[in-house]
Specification:
Elements: E1 2-9, E2 12-17, E3 20-26, H1 29-32, E4 42-49, E5 54-60, E6 66-67, E7 72-73, E8 77-83, H2 91-104, E9 107-113, H3 120-131, E10 137-139, H4 148-155, E11 159-163, H5 170-178, H6 187-191, E12 203-208, E13 211-215, H7 239-243, H8 260-266, H9 272-290
Parallel strand pairs: 3-5, 8-9, 8-11, 9-10, 11-13
Antiparallel strand pairs: 1-2, 1-4, 2-3, 4-5, 6-7, 12-13
């Protein structure tokens, strides 16, 4: 039998197969092989008690991708939610997340929420910056149920993880997508009372047959220290072409003269906001690299 892990509670895994949930444990061989099943994994499993729907995981199928923090596999879309007010837009966090998505090779969607509270000029400015880079940008108001159908279309057939600062409206948005108060009581506690009142790290909500949404507590504060500072420019889309014009090998694109990226900045091909965020992220990565011991 094959299915997808949708939740992990204290080394007990919940596997969904054709709308049926199985409670499973992992075989001891996984510890020996130093690999552990995580939410999002496609696995092979065997039933051990059919009536109780209890099973044992026998094999983890090849992963499309794997994120260490939070631990989740096979995400196909990252949805970054930005609030236009209360809290104000955090574009440094957004650029950090977009760089991470580029590093992971996962498609991104940007959602500008609380349209009703934001200034139209600021909304259009942010939208234009990221649209010009090729990122889909959706302007919505989750509390007013505006733009929700557009979001549903963007995540159709995907395994999506939503991320954003506290207060940006992720819970309101998820409830609007599912048309129920799903974020207060998770999928496991709805289907089986054993999961009630248990804190989980990551959980997948099933929207339809091929569409899942990951609830990833703490994802907003994830670090990107798997990236090396010297490679960061590769994950800013607009920097790649300009970098070829750098005169010196190993250019950091910060203080050097005859730097292609700095020249592109002066020519208006790279926005000041994106470049300044690149510098902040670069310096943070560099500092961690120098003080990791």
């Amino acid at each position: 039998m094959q299915g997808r892990i949708v939740s992990n509670i204290s080394n007990t895994y919940w596997i969904e197969d054709k709308k049926v949930l199985y409670e499973a444990v992992a075989r001891g061989k996984f510890k020996i092989e130093d690999i552990v099943p995580v939410v999002g994994d496609m696995v092979e499993f065997e039933e051990i008690r059919k009536e109780e729907r209890e099973a044992v995981i026998t094999k983890i199928l090849p992963r499309q991708n794997y994120m260490k923090r939070p631990k989740i596999a096979n995400v196909t879309r990252l949805i970054f939610v930005v609030s236009m007010k209360m809290p104000k837009p955090d574009l440094l966090l957004l650029d950090k997340q977009l760089a991470f998505a580029e590093f992971m090779g996962i498609n991104s969607v940007i959602i500008l929420n609380k349209q009703d509270l934001g200034k139209e000029e600021e909304i259009q400015e942010i939208r234009e910056i990221y649209n010009n880079l090729g990122y889909p940008v959706m302007v919505i108001s989750a509390s007013e149920n505006k733009g929700i159908e557009q979001v549903r279309e963007a995540i159709e057939g995907e395994v999506s993880a939503f991320s954003g600062n506290s207060g940006v409206g992720k819970s309101t948005l998820l409830n609007a997508i599912f048309q129920e108060n799903i974020t207060k009581e998770g999928l496991i506690s709805k289907k089986n009372k054993k999961g009630k009142n248990t804190t989980t790290t990551v959980q997948l909500y099933r929207l339809n047959e091929n569409t899942y949404i990951a609830d990833t507590p703490g994802f907003s504060t994830f670090d990107i220290y798997e990236l090396q500072s010297k490679d960061l420019y590769q994950y800013f889309k607009e920097f790649k072409t300009a970098e070829k014009n750098c005169k010196y090998v190993g250019c950091t694109h910060i203080k050097e003269k005859e730097c292609g990226i700095r020249e592109a900045l002066e020519e208006g091909k790279i926005t000041k906001q994106r470049y300044e965020n690149y510098v902040k992220i670069y310096e943070d990565l560099k500092d961690k690299e120098e003080h990791k011991w």
